[in-house]
Amino acid sequence: MRIGIDLDGTVADNFDLLVDTFNAYCGKLLQGKDIKQYSLCKTYNISEQEFNELMDQKEEGIITSSPLIPLAREKINRLVEEGWEVHIITARHPKYKEITENWLQNKGIPYTGLHLLNSHDKLDLCRELEVRYMVEDNIHNAYQLDDGGVNVILFEAPHNQCWPWQGIRCHSWAEIYRIIDNRYK
Ligand SMILES: [Mg+2]
């Protein structure tokens, strides 16, 4: 049995670092809870080019200094012990492969596959891998995957809270684990 797991905002807690970075760049004082949509371009009213230029400067630092989402290590290890094959499926650029591998190793996150897609389109890969679940915090990815027949567990975040979602929505890794365990024990 395979499970797909997004990285940023699902395992790596990069959100506050991103908000700090964009606040500093734009001279704003937003808090995480103020961010009601996934697009930071729209939130901060900046162009995609500005976004990309800022991320080129800051993303490596954000990746290496992101803390773990609470309980992600414990619960992902438990899933692996119970026979799940873990695939980390992220929109990060492949140029961050090595620092991503180092981060995952340092944080004790086990995985079989690490897929850096440089794209938010995760549907083909999820289908190819036949994942039983994809754990994801980006509501737009979740809609696309759900439309494509992939079982999504939406990981709660301020930017997806106000968006309608008929599927499973979890607030913690304890909840995610409970849902999977109940379904497959
Ligand atoms: Mg994410």
UniProtKB/TrEMBL annotation:
UniProtKB keywords: Hydrolase
Molecular function GO labels: 5'-nucleotidase activity
InterPro entries: 5'(3')-deoxyribonucleotidase, 5_3-deoxyribonucleotidase-like, HAD-like_sf, HAD_sf, Nucleotidase_putative
Active-site residues annotated for this sequence: D6, D8
Protein name, UniProt field: Nucleotidase
SUPFAM superfamilies found in the cross-reference section: HAD-like
Pfam families reported in the protein's UniProt record: NT5C (PF06941)
UniProt record, GO biological process: deoxyribonucleotide catabolic process
Highest taxon in the source lineage: Bacteria
Keyword Metal-binding: no
Family: Belongs to the 5'(3')-deoxyribonucleotidase family.
Its EC number(s): 3.1.3.-
Organism: Desulforamulus aeronauticus DSM 10349
